[in-house]
Amino acid sequence: MKAILFDRFGGTDVLHEADIEVPQPGPGQIRVRVRAAGLNALDGKIRSGAMEAVFPTPLPAVPGAELAGVVDALGEGVQDVQVGDEVLGWSDTGSYAEYALATTVAPKPAGLDWQHAVALPVAGETAERVLDLLGVAAGETVLMHGAAGAVGTLAVQLATARGARVIATAGPANQDYLTSLGATATLYGEGLVERVRALAPDGVDAVFDLAGKGALEDSITLRGGTERIVTIADFRAHQLGVTFSSGGQDRSAGRLAELAQDAANGKLVTTVTAYPLDRAATAQQVSDAGHGRGKLVLIVD
């Protein structure tokens, strides 16, 4: 099968297409004919070698943590899905490939296309995990740094659905986008504390940092301390006494199915930019730059 892999750590130039063996599902696993694979910032960090101390990666490796596609084979003991089912979920093997293995998947609604389906697993789990950690409730004000990406797109909508007000930061090109999602948009960078205080004179109740670009100090100033600040992107968190949250432990097929249905019904907006599988390196370059809007996706023919 065709797959994108890397056999050494480095820049996006280490990614290349190769023919590798089709994986065989083990007990409890399914094999999926991948139609779309999601890109995440973590993909680039793993490829560069920056995550070796946390996520050791045997080489060669196929990137990709999420997929949408058609069930192709069942491992021993699998009963809740059938060959031919259309699903979305988390990949056990890299998803930048024609076939991948998975354990936790949800049915794809007929009204949801592959590209928008694959925008949900990682971003949805991450957004809800952090909102729960922060205890976001109706009537509160949440500040989100770097909210125009895949996780932020969902986090803004899910926080607003809880009855919270969201003040979301992004660059000039994404101000109208964040406003369309229901947030009060403002620019990041110098003068942020003053801008946020003008928008929220009574203060912010919680901070969700998705940017990892030096926003924690301003967040501590705005909160008057480190409580109810969570970052998923700034590895200085522990030095500053802030909570760092990484995912993967609480994957819920049931909740993913609900998010997929909401997306199919138009209650949840997803925004995607798609590339063909053989342009994975280009897509990761865009991801590494960190200024994208919504989700980056690879289409697998």
Word description of this protein:
The chain is an alpha/beta fold and about 300 residues long. The protein contains ten helices and 14 strands. Strands 3, 4, 5, 6, 13 and 14 form a six-stranded mixed sheet that branches. The chain has a six-stranded parallel sheet with strand order 9-8-7-10-11-12, with helices on both faces. Strand 11 (about 230), helix 8 (about 235-240) and strand 12 (about 245) form a beta-alpha-beta unit. It starts with a strand and ends with a strand.
Give the class from helix and strand content and strand pairing.
Answer: alpha/beta
Largest β sheet strand count, sense and barrel closure: 6 strands, mixed
- Sequence stretches where pLDDT stays below 50 over 5 or more residues: none
Cα-based radius of gyration, to the nearest Å: 19 Å
Mean pLDDT: 95
Q: How many angstroms does the end-to-end distance come to?
A: 12 Å
Overall shape: it is: globular
Number of strand segments: 14
Order of helices and strands: EEEHEEEHHEHEHEHEHEHEHEHE
Number of H/I helices? 10
Q: Work out the strand percent.
A: 15-25%
Helix content: 25-40%
Task: For this entry, give a set of tags.
six-stranded mixed β-sheet; 29% helix; 301 residues; alpha/beta; six-stranded parallel β-sheet
Summarize the SSE layout with pairings.
Blueprint: E1 2-5, E2 16-19, E3 30-38, H1 41-48, E4 66-74, E5 86-91, E6 99-107, H2 114-117, H3 121-134, E7 141-145, H4 150-161, E8 165-170, H5 175-181, E9 184-187, H6 192-199, E10 206-209, H7 216-223, E11 229-231, H8 237-240, E12 243-244, H9 253-264, E13 272-276, H10 280-289, E14 295-299
Parallel strand pairs: 7-8, 7-10, 8-9, 10-11, 11-12, 13-14
Antiparallel strand pairs: 1-2, 3-4, 3-6, 3-14, 4-5, 5-6
Helix pairs in contact: 1-10, 3-4, 6-7
